[in-house]
Amino acid sequence: MTDSFCRLVSGGKAVYKVRRSEFIAAVYPASSVEAAQRAVEEVKAEQRNATHNCWAWRTEPIGRRSEASSDDGEPAGTAGRPILGELCRLDLWDAVVIVTRYFGGVKLGPRGLIEAYSFAASEAIGHAQKEFFLAGRQVTLVTDYERQTALAGLLRRHGLEGPGQEAEREYGETVKIRLFVPLSRVLSVTEATGSYEWNRLLVEAPALGGPLWRKAPAEE
Q: Can you tell me the distance from the alpha carbon of 190 to that of 98, in angstroms, rounded to the nearest whole number?
């Protein structure tokens, strides 16, 4: 997984008509598989007279990372996978897309179905609100008051602290510094903190926390 990913924060809808078939696409936030399943069932209940209710979801980018899709009776690979493909193309997570089709009497063929479901899903996603997030892990460093200034300088030199990337500090008998480290740098940072350059400024071994994410800073 890359350091950044996109997450859905509000839904969107779109309607696409082609050769007398109507495709109604809706995308909803879904932070878990259970939430995605509920959204699918709700749309199926609302659109119970539809010919097909095809769907795809991607949930929990930091965690079990679930992806799933369904053609709901359309030829295999012509509906669910194209919808999922739009989510993957944008690296969009915590989202479920349901595309409802009302058949108009004219067959579209496999290629036509793939294009229709992809386009409808893309249009709905385009009307939704999305935010970018950074994936990483928390690294906790423990130093004392005499060495905290030197450690802060080391953090800045390694690009681990600075404008828009502030570390959390907890002051007690020691000084605990909690860093957010992007996934791509976790290995290099943990290896570096085991070196003499770092160890001479620490009073405890660095602690590596579990996966987490935070909102990416806005671009200027």
A: 42
In the chain, the number of structural domains is 2
Structure-token pair, residue 195: 């070196």
E strand or H helix at 62: none
Assess whether pLDDT exceeds 60 at residue 182.
yes
Give the mean model confidence (pLDDT) for residues 172-180: 91
Residue 140 sits in the same domain as residue 34: no
* Exposure string over 124-163, b if 16+ CB within 10 A, otherwise e: bbeebebeebbbbbbbbbbbeeeebeebbebbeebebbee
Domain range spanning residue 25? 4-132
Q: What is the DSSP letter of 198?
A: H
Residue at 219 is within a domain: no
Which letter does DSSP use for residue 167 in this model?
P
Segment 175-198 shows an average pLDDT of 83
pTM over 0.70: yes
